[in-house]
């Protein structure tokens, strides 16, 4: 088994003929079975959009603490808003993460409100990128479906109003710290949802531990997104796909990244797709909402 993280051009998945879409789906499927991580190029997201998103992230995290605290998750609730430095601990056995974050949820009727910083054009920029990620996520799910042997649009009606979070991350470098206590950038963890689409500003730090292997670097590749499978899709694929532990080392310099976590609709039924002859479902069916609640409760003792 190889433990490389492949780079996959998804141009033909997005706009190719059926055979071409199937070929890309096979490459993605192979990565999902082996490392659970892959890079994508040919994703159609404009470099100028990415520059805009990173500029906006810089502007947000540069705001005075009092302004950031005014839009804090602890005030806003529902996993939206600002999370201060040292609040989170992704690896509960390690020190708190050396990062601050800002969470944005889907904007729609009936959804909890987001908090927005008072920065011109900021909201529009983030919502534009949110939409681009959702479209990309839909393309990736067509590939998962083709590879798992169900109809190409299998996931479409399970992602009509998905539980999705766009998360800006700012990792603080050690030299900006008075003490160097060995805290990680982000502790080792797996992601909960179906797929995560990650953009990194070029500073290294992300590492991946394939099951049965050692930590390997996932270097930042300019213009490419890093995608990884989360626990929900692992369950949905009846453990054919793997969600892989990853972490961010204490970065050598300041580091910014933007993660888009895509989970299914709260009422979608996550029922294992059994593709291997002779296999039986490893899990009972569960709704996307109940699954996420279970996971959050296990981690935080409560669901938000
Ligand atoms: O910032 C990164 O490179 C990874 C972040 C991550 O894994 C997460 O927030 O779940
Ligand atoms: Fe992660």
From TrEMBL:
Matching entries from InterPro entries are given as:
DIOX_N, IPNS-like_FE2OG_OXY, IPNS-like_sf, Iron_ascorbate_oxido_reductase, Oxoglu/Fe-dep_dioxygenase_dom
Top-level enzyme category: oxidoreductase
Q: Which reaction does it catalyse?
A: L-arginine + 2-oxoglutarate + O2 = guanidine + L-glutamate 5-semialdehyde + succinate + CO2; 2-oxoglutarate + O2 + 2 H(+) = ethene + 3 CO2 + H2O
What is this protein identified as? Answer: 2-oxoglutarate-dependent ethylene/succinate-forming enzyme
Which terms in the Gene Ontology molecular function aspect does this entry carry?
Answer: 2-oxoglutarate oxygenase/decarboxylase (ethylene-forming) activity; metal ion binding
Gene name tied to this protein: efe
Can you tell me which family this protein belongs to? Belongs to the iron/ascorbate-dependent oxidoreductase family.
**One BP term from GO:** ethylene biosynthetic process
Q: In which pathway does it act?
A: Alkene biosynthesis; ethylene biosynthesis via 2-oxoglutarate
Entry keyword Cytoplasm: no
Signal peptide, first to last residue: none
